[in-house]
Write a structure and sequence with these properties.
Blueprint (H helix, E strand, L loop, with lengths): L5 H8 L67 E5 L15 E6 L16 E4 L21 E2 L5 E4 L2 E6 L7 E7 L3 E7 L8 E5 L9 E7 L4 E9 L7 E10 L5 E6 L2 E4 L3 E5 L11 E3 L6 E3 L9 E6 L7 E9 L3 H11 L5 H16 L2 E4 L3 H14 L4 E2 L6 E3 L5 E3 L6 E2 L3 H4 L3 H8 L1 H18 L19 H11 L7 H13 L15 H7 L7 E2 L1 H10 L2 H4 L7 H9 L27 E2 L1 H21 L3 H10 L7 E2 L4 E2 L30 H5 L6 H7 L3 H11 L32 H15 L15 H11 L1 E3 L6 E4 L6 E4 L6 E4 L9 E7 L2 E2 L4 E3 L7 E8 L21 H4 L4
Parallel strand pairs: 25-26, 32-36
Antiparallel strand pairs: 1-2, 2-4, 3-9, 5-6, 6-7, 7-8, 8-19, 9-18, 10-11, 10-15, 11-12, 12-19, 13-14, 13-18, 16-17, 20-31, 21-24, 22-23, 27-28, 29-30, 30-35, 31-32, 33-34, 33-36
Helix pairs in contact: 4-20, 6-7, 6-8, 6-20, 7-8, 8-14, 9-14, 14-15
């Protein structure tokens, strides 16, 4: 490495940067040094990015980003968009780029989730005659005669707008355009000339996880169709939400009708149905699709409330029909009020223009200049996806449905929902805190409201329900991290009280049987979650199956293999590859109070949550709480095996799990870690890297280990290498900053940006997870990453673009890196707010009121930031004075 001082570099290189011959490997895309900030950032967004697998399916939600191309505004409640068939390559968004059929345009969905949920009320234009029920028995899909083909040649999308031609090669093509506001959307349909039949079908039984009950009403005089449905069961977790909608047309309805299952009612104005499945059982039974794929729907359901309506129009003289539609999770009256507030009197084109303007306002919170056009497209598409979630949950009048099933008013904030806690605590909430602090504030207020209404902070709330999806205790990390990054306008006392309760008490919320910290008693007693209490993906799914026993003709006493044979169809052969699974104890109705998904992994997650609680308590002057939880934050050490040099599950007796390979995991995540393995989780101790490095044998040994680990960046959960297509590996590229080798962080972060992400449909290395993968890309491109949860520590790397401006109300943050390119990614010098900066980290407090980072970059590794004592902070149980005894 070169050893010029920073002062020498600034004198010799100046603001133009330096170029040192001798390159790092790989090609360098053309860089336009003079390219200014985009005047229309929305034009750089590819809404189809993430809808095609960009990596192998590792069994953790597929290899695609699971995004969707339909119109949405920032944090919008309504997400009207196309649902393709079979969509097995996109569980959350419902649109798979390689599919060629559309089943409808539903009102709700996730962006980036690795499991099924929402996709309520698919609305489908059709020219087929409605002479029999459009419903398909025991399915959430319509009769195939109403499913349409489509082609990417006749499809386009942009922020706030989507267009597609259905059946483009037929003699009756239908053109569909969509746009959206926060709670309302519009669909403009152009039927073919002289179409004998021109109808819109509303399938209230079409939710992807089925519908418990539903009812629909047609008011021909008002030109209105409205209804409600009860759905839920996101990722097979037993939660519920009720969705209400009102749709209004700009033209008179020529004819109409309803259906209930196979009963067609031409001229009918109302219909309702109730699922035949008992209330406590799942509507959907999962099927195992392939060895490499997650548990998923085989395409149909056990049963769903099957009800719908249609409105037909005279297309002979006027081919175009515009529908305005709005939703509410409170009431039909509120849905109608949302429609009046956001869409009444607003033309389709005006709503589209407003949506694009809103996106530009939000996208321009970060302005990048220079770099390649492909990089700018990737960046702004990532920022677009990062600002779709969380979901607005309050109606236009401020009301929302609480977790106690009561209507509440959000006073002075916007209630939000759809938080994939295990994912978003690692990058997404930090991005919101920095560039959209008002939305991060809403998030914190909403978490506190969740705890007030249900008794507990959530893991993965959907609608107004807990789901308990994933593992750990992410809410304390969300709260403490946002607070550390400057979000302060919330009830910190109430937040800390809820965090402490969840971290010390075992209890079950009445809402969906949710438990904030399963196995907390053993964790407190032993200092770790014993492997006897290890739940895995299989036991979680079997738990759902067990609730469906009456439909299978089983009584709940059969061995696990019998259950799998009955439900999955011969899946017992899979168990041969996983010793011990055939005798896995699965009591009827697996008890979340006594099981945690991934025993050793959950221990690490709880330790990180404990550190977050200690951090917030210390900041608030709650010394005793800080000291207690700081001591517990070292519990990750209890599942570190010094002989292996890796994390390892442990039995309650204190014996290690054996036989055990830390680089192995199975498709069920049954080896003590959720969606990762012992090697990958070893690097996930964000608050105490120095402690981890010491256990690994010191800096030289740790550098060698980590370098080998990162020779492959996205190798799946059963590998000795990194799995950066999923969140547990996010920390790994940045850890070299703690090892006096920040140049290796810079080199690896560049590899992550260039090898794992691009601007095409397959441009993500894994699920976007409600904007988390996008946020990680954004931080990597900015050249800093908020590494330590509950602290404001920014681990530094090299910016991807020559100039970046973060626009903030408290003051802009300007980053300059002249000459930044794919190959010029090594830091040779840095000034922070005008002063020389020699450390590979920075506290955000130096930028919270605005600031400036001016880089000098080089083509080869440099010595900048490698001095002893320059490493970022670490926090162990001995860090009481620094964390808990603040002046």
């Amino acid at each position: 490495m070169a050893h010029l001082t920073t002062r020498q570099l600034w004198r010799t290189a100046g603001i133009a940067g330096i170029s040192i011959l001798g390159a790092c490997g790989g090609s360098d895309a053309p860089v336009a040094e003079g390219g200014g900030a985009a005047a229309d950032a929305a034009a750089l967004v590819n809404v189809f990015r993430g809808t095609q697998p960009g990596a192998p399916d590792q069994g953790t939600g597929g290899g695609a980003g699971n995004t969707f191309p339909g119109p949405v505004v920032p944090f919008g409640m309504i997400k009207l968009g196309p649902d393709t068939l079979p969509a097995q390559a996109n569980f959350g968004g419902g649109y798979a780029y390689d599919d060629d059929r559309i089943r409808g345009f539903s009102l709700t969905r996730f962006s980036g989730a690795g499991c099924w949920g929402y996709r309520d009320v698919p609305i489908m234009p059709t020219t087929a005659p409605i002479n029999r029920s459009p419903a398909r028995p025991l399915s959430s899909n319509l009769n195939p005669m109403h499913v349409a083909n489509y082609s990417h040649d006749e499809e386009e999308g942009a922020p706030g707008y989507y267009r597609v031609t259905l059946n483009p090669a037929s003699d009756a093509p239908i053109d569909v355009e969509l746009t959206a506001a926060t709670r309302a959307a519009q669909m403009r349909v152009t039927f073919p000339e002289n179409a004998e039949h021109a109808s819109l079908l509303f399938d209230l039984g079409g939710s992807v996880m089925g519908v418990r009950n539903a009812e629909v009403t047609i008011d021909p005089e008002r030109g209105e169709i409205s209804g409600s449905l009860l759905s839920g069961d996101f990722c097979f977790h037993p939660h519920r939400y009720r969705l209400h909608f009102v749709a209004r047309f700009d033209r008179p309805i020529a004819s109409h009708g309803t259906w209930r299952r196979q009963l067609l009612q031409p001229g009918g104005t109302s219909a309702s149905d109730v699922s035949l499945v008992p209330p406590g059982d799942l509507l959907a039974i999962p099927n195992l699709l392939t060895l490499g794929q997650n548990f998923g729907l085989g395409g149909d359901l056990v049963d769903t409330a099957s009800v719908g309506a249609w409105a037909a129009f005279d297309a002979h003289e006027q081919r175009e029909v515009t529908m305005r539609v709005a939703i509410s999770f409170v009431s039909r009256d509120n849905a109608r009020a949302n429609l009046d507030a956001e869409a009444e009197g607003v033309s389709f084109d005006a709503m589209r223009a407003n949506a694009r303007a809103r996106w530009n306002d939000n996208l321009e919170r970060i302005q990048v200049e220079g770099g390649s056009e492909a990089d700018r497209r990737t960046f702004y598409t990532s920022l677009y996806h990062a600002l779709i979630h969380p979901t607005t949950f309050t109606d236009a009048n401020g009301e929302y449905m609480g977790m106690d099933a009561q209507v509440h008013v959000a006073d002075g904030y916007t209630q939000i929902t759809d938080l994939s806690g295990w994912d978003i605590y690692r990058a997404h909430v930090q991005l919101l805190s920095i560039i959209a602090p008002e939305r991060a504030r809403d998030l914190l207020h909403s978490l506190i409201a969740n705890a007030r209404e249900s008794g507990w902070l959530p893991k993965w709330p959907v609608g107004n329900g807990h789901t308990g999806s994933m593992t750990g205790d992410p809410a304390p990390i969300l709260i403490a991290s946002a607070h550390a990054l400057g979000v302060r306008d919330f009830d910190t006392a109430a937040a800390l009280a809820a965090m402490v309760r969840g971290g010390t008490e075992l209890g079950r919320s009445e809402n969906a049987g949710y438990v904030q910290r399963p196995v907390i008693n053993e964790y407190l007693q032993l200092g770790y979650v014993p492997h006897e209490r290890n739940a895995n993906q299989l036991t979680q799914v079997v738990d759902a199956m067990l609730r469906a026993y009456p439909l299978l003709g089983l009584d709940g006493t059969e061995p696990l293999v019998t259950v799998l044979d009955a439900v999955l169809g011969g899946a017992s052969a899979l168990l041969d590859a996983v010793p011990g699974l055939d005798v896995l104890p699965v009591p009827s109705g697996v008890d979340d109070l006594t099981l945690a998904w991934g025993s050793a992994g959950t221990t690490i997650e709880y330790a990180k949550a404990d550190f977050a609680i200690a951090s917030l308590a210390g900041a608030l002057g709650e010394t005793a709480v800080c000291e207690d939880f700081l001591a517990r934050s070292g519990n990750w050490r209890n599942v570190f095996d010094p002989d292996l040099g890796a994390m390892r599950p442990k039995w309650a007796s204190g014996l290690w799990l054996a036989p055990y390979d830390p680089a192995f995991n199975d498709i069920f995540s049954s080896m003590g870690f959720a969606e990762g393995n012992g090697v990958q989780y070893t690097w996930s101790v964000g608050h105490d890297p120095a402690g981890l490095i010491a256990l690994l044998g010191g800096q030289a040994a740790a550098v060698a280990r980590l370098s080998e680990h990162l020779t492959k960046l996205n190798d799946g959960f059963s590998s000795p290498h990194a799995f950066l297509g999923n969140e547990p590996s996010f920390y790994t590229p940045w850890l070299f900053n703690w090892m006096q080798r920040p140049d290796l962080t810079q080199a690896t972060v560049r590899r992550v940006l260039l090898e794992l992400f691009n601007d095409g449909p397959g441009g993500y290395p894994g699920n976007d997870d409600l904007g988390t993968m996008s946020a990680y890309y954004i931080f990597s491109a900015l050249g800093f990453y908020p590494f330590q949860h509950g602290q404001d520590t920014l681990a530094l790397s090299a910016p991807l673009f020559p100039r970046i401006t973060l626009r903030r109300a408290r003051g802009d943050i300007v980053i300059t890196a002249p000459g930044a390119s794919h190959s010029r990614g090594f830091v040779a010098g840095l000034r922070v707010n005008g002063g020389e900066h020699e450390r590979p980290w920075l506290p955000f407090t130096e930028l919270v009121d605005g600031g400036r980072l001016d880089y000098v970059l080089a083509d080869t590794p440099q010595a900048w930031g490698s001095d002893a004592g320059a490493a970022p902070p670490s926090f162990s149980a001995d860090s009481v004075a620094r964390l808990c005894l603040r002046p």
